[in-house]
Design a protein that fits this description.
mainly beta, 190 residues, globular, SH3 type barrels, six-stranded antiparallel sheet, OB fold (Dihydrolipoamide Acetyltransferase, E2P)
Length: 190
């Protein structure tokens, strides 16, 4: 679907020279001299490269419909991760290089978001917040509660994150997958 470039919004996906681009930033610019234009910063959905372009006011770009679907990470098969659409149970194989965050923060049978265009998975992202258990932790230094000192721990997916010194093996943690930061320790009812 063709739209005027001044109608573009952050998060829109457009097609240019056969590649799909996600709008990260846009700005309408009206210089003192010359015609108005729209400055667009976009990321290539295949390579991850970024570019900045200026489009003249009134120029048209091809907007594409990308569907967000709920999915499940089922298993890793060689260099691919296999995901299942939660509604249709259709399976998708996605190259490992597109699944770094999934590998860090999602266990098998964990929930993910699939971005799909014409039957092809463009990106896979974990839920914004996940709960994972600490698999390995070195003991913290006693008495150091005044400073915001942290230590590295290994969570059950094998990833390493920074946490406060009081965190121990077996603790259940809430983690922000967008930043990889520890948020809180979950108190489990016994």
């Amino acid at each position: 679907m063709l739209i005027n470039v001044q109608d573009i919004r952050k998060g829109n996906v457009f097609k240019e020279n056969g590649d799909l681009w996600t709008v990260m930033f846009f700005q309408h610019v009206t210089p003192g001299k010359g015609g108005a234009f729209v400055k667009v910063k976009a990321r290539n959905m295949k390579t991850g490269n970024q570019k900045e372009n200026n489009y003249r006011s009134g120029e048209k770009i091809e907007l594409v419909d990308v569907f967000e679907k709920d999915g499940t990470y089922t298993y890793k098969d060689g260099d691919n991760f296999v995901f299942m659409d939660s509604e249709t149970f259709e399976q998708y194989e996605v190259p490992a290089e597109m699944c770094e965050d999934v590998e860090k923060f999602v266990l098998e049978n964990g929930n993910v978001k699939l971005s799909i265009y014409e039957g092809t998975v463009l990106s896979v992202s974990p839920e914004n917040f996940v709960q994972l258990r600490v698999k390995h932790s070195d003991p913290g230094v006693k008495g150091d509660t005044v400073t915001k000192t942290t230590k590295s721990v290994e969570i059950e997916t094998g990833a390493t994150i920074q946490v406060p010194l009081f965190i121990q093996e077996g603790d259940l943690l809430k983690i922000d997958t967008r930043t990889g930061e520890y948020l809180e320790r979950i108190n489990e009812k016994k």
